[in-house]
Amino acid sequence: MTYQVLARKWRPKDFASLVGQAHVVKALTHALERQQLHHAYLLSGTRGVGKTTLARILTKALNCETGISATPCGQCQTCVEIDATRSVDYIEMDAASNRSVDEMSALLERAIYAPVAARFQVYMIDEAHMLTHHAFNAMLKTLEEPPPHLKFILATTDPKKIPVTVLSRCLQFNLKQMPAEQISAALEKILVAENVRFEPRAVHLLARAAHGSMRDALSLTDQAIAYAARDLSLAAIREMLGAVEQRYLVQLLDAVVERNGAAVLELADEMAAHSVSFAHALQDLASLLHQIAWSQYAPDSIPDAEVNGEEIRRFAGVLPPEEVQLYYQIVTIGRSELGLAPDEYAGFTMTLLRMLAFCAVDANDCRTPQTTSKTEARSASPARAALEVLNGVRSVDDQAAVQRQQDAERALKQDPFVKQLARDFGATLIPGSVQ
């Protein structure tokens, strides 16, 4: 038997099983129950959040042989054909490859004919923002006053590219990215049904890696099942995703807290020897610091299933809140500057050395043997320490911008036309007006 990927096998068939889009389901359910049916819908959202799935469920709700209902039967011939995309009255069109005015005109010519078997003829235009300007113009009249049997469903990942003339003719629904907790709960139900062994923290790691996309989560789960031989352990999932081992992050932060520069560099060398991505390491370190800061002000908000939950609570009790904020700022700036460093290792270690060099506590607690005299002269103010960090990493860019503006003003003053204006009319160049 042909294997069917999880994203297709577990595609929701009705509104009740759709994950994470309760606001859209509520609006459509009420409209269907009251028979208040619009002729055009626009579904927007990132990839894998349910735009195509929602279009198919809505089409079944409109065309189910039991009648227009928010709970289509899923068993009649019409529902089965729509699920299998075999219905002649439900047409899915990819606007990325059918974007011209000629192709849109051909579609509209077919749309005037009554449906073959269903109650309504539904055109689902995927990636609608890829249509040309002329193609959008060609569909405006039909979109505004379609035949009674015709419905349009437009789906897009970039609604800003849809002309306002089209937006004003559609009911607009923005599909949200799903929280990791929702994705994790859905994955656990699927894995139980598939008889796959798993660790909850491993599933949570997959859910976080999906970045709000249920389809991405299912694709990663498919990959994990193959990689881990149907036994999803935390270690196997980390290895598959190329994720940084959490022990590195915890040990690095411990070494920074203890002001142990030798241990920090030793850990960086060990990570380099294991070919760890330093970009991912900084990303995960920033995420860890964010969770620590969150835990300091809302201790109950970190769920027990959260990766590093115990370490997060420990660091939240050890580190002063202002120091966590300072470290987070250093790590995020270091991450943005990683591409400017001689290599990733240099950029990563310099970020860690900044964390050792700056602190937001009493100056005496922040000494290193090499910088005792300089440290004693520093202010203990957290705000000043943070400002020094920002000024240190941004002053070069600011000075370069000022220099470029001054050069541009000097060049403009030498322009013959500007000189003539100054000579004949007394015109002057306003300082700072050149962008």
Write the SSE topology.
Layout lengths: L5 H4 L12 H12 L6 E5 L6 H13 L13 H7 L6 E5 L6 H11 L9 E6 L6 H12 L5 E7 L7 H4 L3 E4 L5 H14 L3 E2 L1 H10 L4 H14 L3 E2 L1 H8 L4 H12 L3 H13 L4 H20 L11 H10 L2 H16 L7 H14 L14 H6 L4 H32 L2 H10 L10
Parallel strand pairs: 1-4, 1-5, 2-3, 3-4, 6-7
Helix pairs in contact: 3-4, 5-6, 8-9, 9-10, 9-11, 12-13, 13-17, 14-15, 14-16, 16-17, 16-19
EC number: 2.7.7.7
Function: DNA polymerase III is a complex, multichain enzyme responsible for most of the replicative synthesis in bacteria. This DNA polymerase also exhibits 3' to 5' exonuclease activity.
Keywords: ATP-binding, DNA replication, DNA-directed DNA polymerase, Metal-binding, Nucleotide-binding, Nucleotidyltransferase, Transferase, Zinc
How would you characterize this protein structure?
The protein has helices spanning 6-9, 22-33, 51-63, 77-83, 101-111, 133-144, 164-167, 180-193, 200-209, 214-227, 234-241, 246-257, 261-273, 278-297, 309-318, 321-336, 344-357, 372-377, 382-413, 416-425, and strands at residues 40-44, 90-94, 121-126, 150-156, 171-174, 197-198, 231-232. The chain folds into four domains: 6-174, Rossmann fold (3-Layer(aba) Sandwich), CATH 3.40.50.300; 180-241, Orthogonal Bundle (Helicase, Ruva Protein, domain 3); 245-360, Zinc Finger, Delta Prime, domain 3, CATH 1.20.272; 362-435, no CATH class. The chain is flat. It has a five-stranded parallel beta sheet, covered by helices on one side. The chain contains 20 helices and seven strands. The relative contact order is 0.07. The protein is α/β, with parallel strands linked by helices and 435 residues long.
